[in-house]
Amino acid sequence: MSTVEVPRGVPLDRPNPFDPSPQLTRLRETRPISRMIFFPDEHEGWLITGHEQVKKVLADTRFSSSSTFQRSPVDSPFLPKQLKEFPVEPGMFIRMDPPDHTRLRRKLTGVFTVKRMKVLEARVAEIVNQHLDELAASPKPADLVEKFALPVPSMVICELLGVPYEERAEFQTRSHKMLSFSTQPEERMASIKEIQEYILGLAKQKRAEPTDDLLSDLTQDDDLEPAEMGGIGFLLLVAGHETTANMLGLGTFALLEHPEQLEILRDDPELMPKAVEELLRYLSIIHLGARRIAAEDIEFEGHLIKKGDSVSISVAGANRDPNKFDDPDTLDVRRTATGHVSFGHGVHQCLGQQLARIEMRIGFEALLRRFPGLRLAVDPSEVPLRTDMAIYGVHKLPVTW
Amino acid sequence: MKIKADREVCVGAGMCVLTAAELFDQDDDEGRVLVLQPEPHPDQVAAAREAVELCPSGALSLEEG
Ligand code: SF4
């Protein structure tokens, strides 16, 4: 009885900047497990949009992260035109399955515990305040992405890793290229290689003269090949740049467009941890979703997912599922939004999530306190949206105060 | 009721500590789960259930009774 067509790629249109594509919503309503066409070879794989189903796929390691054949969930040059084997690069543990994944991830989990992140809070607050001082002193209107949302998480991850912050422009441009749908495959691969080489060069220095940072610690680990370390450093550096930055940028936009929610939050800053979870749920910035490949034939809720089938997971679909969240399309900073899948689920669930939470709590709290008159400096329709990027958000957010 | 944690399965995401800091901690080395209180008080049972549900790796479970 379904009237929704098989989608060609993940639907990414955004009539409302904060809501997922209406097609995605219709799909979840009619069939939370749907077929979907992947590129470049028109492979008919699967798109999973229901909350329960998304969690199940992510928790099931028969859905492999080590995609031997990578296909693109969007029709763009984003990935190479020929279906070809992608060797998983050393250290890139997000594209590995256990036990390789486990071995590498364990080298990092100790650094990102809830406790360790608490210790970092004071430093994060300093970085936040420093950027807000600069924002306050700059001419109005100002771009909140450039002045605040991007530099804060960049500086935090650079310090944690031991990457000189002054060199950020170099890899910020490359990381941007890497994640843009319009980048040609060769250029994308080149950007990846350049960031990796940069990290490897830095690691060489740190091995000789270790300093007090994560990269130095990793270089002292005899169990890690240098190339693996390069891969790990690359992942952390890129992840630390584009994710939290977009939550801060798009999150501020969302709050400014929901003044009653902003009011509630200003009246009761204690609500901030809840508000952060709710913004994570409501905005679901990983709008391209996660990808898996069936490593064997899998019977899945009445469907046969064949070995080799590509599976695309919709974070936004799951986070707006009314079977999980009441009134899911309403932003409500007072609700308990735990159980959202914005950090994923399963063994690959985001390693840096506790750091991200701290940056958002401190960042939003200080921003709202320091700029009680914060408002958009352009019409909301003029805010450039990142529909063309693997991680959704705003390219710019012109604000005044 | 007893909380069981499989440290081999744990991926150190810290959701348990975030959900119920009285019941869980993570070790300093690898960030793997430590159960502080294997037998939760009646008023901690809801938090324990939530932690089990939110654990991404399936490392946590509850033994009823
Ligand atoms: S939530 Fe699960 S995976 Fe994460 S630290 Fe706790 S037990 Fe380990």
From TrEMBL, chain A:
Q: Where is this region: Disordered?
A: 1-24
Superkingdom, natural source? Bacteria
The protein here is known as: Cytochrome P450
The family line of this record is:
Belongs to the cytochrome P450 family.
Question: What UniProt keywords apply to this chain's record, in alphabetical order?
Answer: Heme, Iron, Metal-binding, Monooxygenase, Oxidoreductase
Which GO MF terms are attached to this record?
Answer: heme binding; iron ion binding; monooxygenase activity; oxidoreductase activity, acting on paired donors, with incorporation or reduction of molecular oxygen
Q: Where does the sequence pass through the membrane?
A: none
Under the heading SUPFAM superfamilies, the entry gives: Cytochrome P450
**What taxonomic ancestry is recorded?**
Bacteria, Bacillati, Actinomycetota, Actinomycetes, Glycomycetales
Q: Note the Pfam families from the entry.
A: p450
TrEMBL record, chain B:
User: In this protein, which residues make up the domain named Divergent 4Fe-4S mono-cluster?
Assistant: 1-63
Q: Which UniProt keywords apply?
A: 3Fe-4S, Electron transport, Iron, Iron-sulfur, Metal-binding, Transport
Under Pfam families, the record lists: Fer4_19
Q: Per its UniProt record, what InterPro entries does this chain match?
A: 3Fe4S_ferredoxin (IPR001080), Divergent_4Fe-4S_mono-cluster (IPR010693), Fe-S_cluster_ET (IPR051269)
Q: Which cofactor does it need?
A: [3Fe-4S] cluster
Q: Which GO terms describe its molecular function?
A: 3 iron, 4 sulfur cluster binding; electron transfer activity; iron ion binding
Q: What does this protein do?
A: Ferredoxins are iron-sulfur proteins that transfer electrons in a wide variety of metabolic reactions.
| Name the record gives this protein | Ferredoxin
Q: What is the lineage of its organism?
A: Bacteria, Bacillati, Actinomycetota, Actinomycetes, Glycomycetales
